[in-house]
Design brief:
Elements (H helix, E strand, L loop, with lengths): L1 E2 H12 L5 H16 L3 H6 L4 E2 L1 H15 L4 H5 L1 E4 L2 E4 L9 H18 L4 E6 L5 H9 L3 E7 L2 H13 L4 E5 L14 E6 L4 E2 L8 H4 L8 E2 L6 H13 E10 L5 H10 L2 E8 L5 E8 L1
């Protein structure tokens, strides 16, 4: 039998050298809440409590999987995004904090108009559904459509929509080869966080991303890095209403090129915004 304070030391020693100390601490807090139901304060208040063997085994298994750089969100099968619970597995990207900033920007841009009328929103490349579901949950009168090429990803997104009690219309299609899937629809907002990591940037990425997260949702060819943005911008000229808004999450190194692409596609009032880490991360543009 092992006390909680001893388990914490055991956990930290097991992952020493694999991750920074701050990240190990974060892993222990997440695991303690998931397996034990303990908040941060409980770990101090209940340090002398004995952890039952079943939960001890969970922490042992977690250590071994984390040593293989498997993301803790995939191991536990869940994460949080914009204050909402989301199921995740290796069919979908793990939602990032910078994407929460994009969602917040969209909500603040749309809320003043959403009380008076229905707001039609299209999320292209929805993955786990984190953007679409967060918008549906926080924008009154939002009618949200979510598109993805992966049936496995859409299965996860559908579970997340049900879990968060929102009604989303899901579309299984490849945005690069759209035919009639969105015919006769007009949107107030189109948003996309498409694949944007160039092959040349792989060496900058950690093993937990490279070995486990879906490459289909991450990478583009070096010589055609804006392929999805170009297609979506062209498509948005057809699908957006007058004064409709187009939002993108972008590659931090391609902000200038993104503004140029949007300008070439006749969008106006183009804004490039940095994330909390001062990296060019998102754009907003208006169809006039």
């Amino acid at each position: 039998m092992m006390q909680l304070k001893a388990l914490k030391i055991y956990f930290k020693n097991g992952l020493k050298g694999y991750y920074p100390n701050e990240e190990i601490e974060s892993f222990f807090l997440i695991a303690s809440e998931f397996y034990l139901g303990y908040k941060r304060i409980d770990i101090s208040l209940k340090a002398d409590e004995v952890v039952n063997p079943k939960n001890y085994n969970h922490f042992q298994e977690l250590i071994e999987r984390l040593k293989n750089y498997e993301p803790i969100q995939y191991i536990l099968g869940e994460t949080e995004f914009f204050g909402l619970p989301f199921k995740v597995n290796e069919s979908v990207l793990i939602p990032r904090p910078e994407t929460e900033e994009l969602v917040d920007w969209i909500i603040n841009s749309v809320i003043p108009h959403s009380v008076e009328k229905q707001i039609n929103i299209l999320d292209i490349g929805t993955g786990s559904g984190c953007i679409a579901i967060s918008l549906a949950k926080n924008i009154p009168n939002a009618k949200v459509y979510a598109l993805d090429v992966s049936k496995d990803a859409l299965s996860v997104a559908q579970q997340n929509a049900q879990q968060n009690n929102v009604d989303i219309t899901f579309v299984n299609a490849n945005v690069l080869e759209l035919n009639s899937e969105l015919n006769d629809l007009q949107f107030d907002v189109i948003v996309s966080n498409p694949p944007y990591v160039r092959e040349l940037e792989k060496e900058l990425m950690h093993d937990n991303v490279l070995k486990h997260e879906p490459h289909l949702a991450l990478f583009v060819e070096d010589d055609n890095a804006l392929v999805f943005y170009r297609v979506i911008a062209e498509l948005s000229q057809k699908l957006l209403k007058e004064n409709g808004l187009l939002f993108f999450e972008i590659n931090e190194y391609l902000g200038v090129q993104m503004k140029q692409l949007l300008s070439e596609n006749k969008f106006q009032d183009i804004e490039l915004r940095q994330d909390i880490n001062q990296k060019d991360r998102m754009t907003k543009a208006v169809k006039l």
